[in-house]
Amino acid sequence: MRGLVFLGIAVFLGFSSHPLMAGSETNRCFKGLLPNPAITVGTLASLITKKTPTFFKITDPTQVPGDSNPNPFHFFGWLDRNTGMVEFSLRTHLKTKEGLYRACWNGREKVHEMLNHFGLENVKMIKGVWRNGDNLETFDRLVATGMPPEKAASQTWTGRAAAREGFTEVKITAYDVNRGKTQKVVVVFSRP
Fold first, then answer.
1. Do 88 and 111 touch, CB atoms closer than 8 A?
2. Cβ of 87: how many Cβ atoms within 10 Å?
3. The sheet that has 85-91: what strands, in order across it?
4. Radius of gyration for the chain, computed over Cα atoms and rounded to the nearest angstrom
5. Which domains does the chain have, with CATH numbers?
6. Which of the residues 11, 69, 75, 135 could staple to 58 if both were Cys, CB 3.0 to 4.6 A apart?
7. Is residue 167 classed exposed, middle or buried when 0-12, 13-18 and 19+ CB atoms within 10 A define those classes?
């Protein structure tokens, strides 16, 4: 019955012809119709995972209307075994002219999965390099209010994800500003 209600709402709102509505509704990773107002796309079964002792990669081949990237949503993580430094890159949201889309997987869960894959005993630091995106936007907004840069970095998505895993010490190693605009922030999160 729930699937019929969902399909009925989709048809009523005019989404029945939307490319992401094709196929079985139960095979998709929809968490609701236009939540927040993003459309959640993809399936957990479609995720492509590659793991080595120092590399962790998840890609989602789900195509998003208006984007030509063959893997619009991704998570890449790598560990430098010599220093214990982990870096990662992820994309869970994508805005196109057709709308806002989000991956069907949770970035926080993937950070946790990646760190456990590498072995927490091997991970000494998490490094963030921000040139654009949500982390830099949050960082800039908080620094503009007078918050110290280290505190602002701890309040970003990556800062909160690192803190959940016990990496609560924050050190800014590069903070490049040109003509009042932040070009790059490099931050390292470590355990106390």
1. yes
2. 14
3. 48-52, 55-60, 73-80, 85-91, 125-130, 181-190, 169-178
4. 19
5. 44-92+105-190 (3.40.630)
6. 75
7. buried
Distance CA 187, CA 103 (A): 26
Please report, in tens digits, the pLDDT of each residue of the chain (192 residues total): 433 333 333 333 333 333 333 333 333 343 333 344 556 666 666 677 889 899 999 887 777 777 777 777 888 999 999 999 999 998 887 777 877 887 777 888 999 999 999 999 999 999 999 998 899 999 999 999 999 999 999 999 999 999 999 999 999 999 999 988 899 999 999 999
Q: Per-residue b/e over 39-71, b at no fewer than 16 CB within 10 Å?
A: bbbbbeeebeeeeeeeebbbbbebbbeeeeeee
Q: In 5-84, at which residue ranges do the beta strands (DSSP E only) sit?
A: 39-41, 48-52, 55-60, 73-80
